[in-house]
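Table S2 (continued). Query chain:
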Amino acid sequence: MTQKNDPTDQFRLDGKIAVVTGGSRGLGKEMVLAFAKCGADVVIASRKEDACKDLARTVIEETGQRALGIGCHVGHWDACDDLAKRSLDHFGHVDILVNNAGMSPRYSSVLDISEELYDKVMGVNLKGAFRLAAVLGTEMFEGTGGSIINVSSIAADMPTPIEIPYGAAKSGLHSITKSLARAFAPKVRVNCIMPGAFMTDISKAWPAEMVAGLEQSIPMKRGGQPHEIVGAALYLASDASRYSTGSIIKIDGGATYGMG
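Corresponding output:
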């Protein structure tokens, strides 16, 4: 029996519209499903349009919420504008934006980081997040408000030699989180989730010695499971975090303990 003034009610997202980039798999997929189960209608965006549409059908069938799958390469400015426009045209408003799309291609040495690789990593991880936040954040600010959630990485604070452009881009994402939190205050909250190593489908390609190293170096002795991102995402998307903005929340099993 639900009690009056149930504190869990503040985590509900009924009537909200959420746009999630990188939403067709991994952490993005978990956030999409969680938002829908809490009452939100969702826009699922990634470069793989078929995967977005497949997940949209799953959301509709399993939750009864409305869902729209859109193919979008967020590294392209005009594609971000198109995603924002299609989302607004379809649903009328957007209340939650999750900038989750990311990429970190491998390279063999610092000198092998080409201009193309550098620009692609910066485009997907930073430029697209900024453009979508600028466009949809302005719409939220001019409307009834909303929440923007950027998804960075512990590489922003603890970069390694194999992810130099990626770490730089995610560090930049921390910066725009803080600046946009002030630019859109007090109507739009802008926060960031900083995940550590999560065992998504991408982790299946990790060498066994890398996984063993994580188990030794992370205080929690394991990588995160994808659904373990959901608590932080729901908190930041919902009224539960109505006094939080400009925050960066680490979900890393203690990997960056002592780094702020």
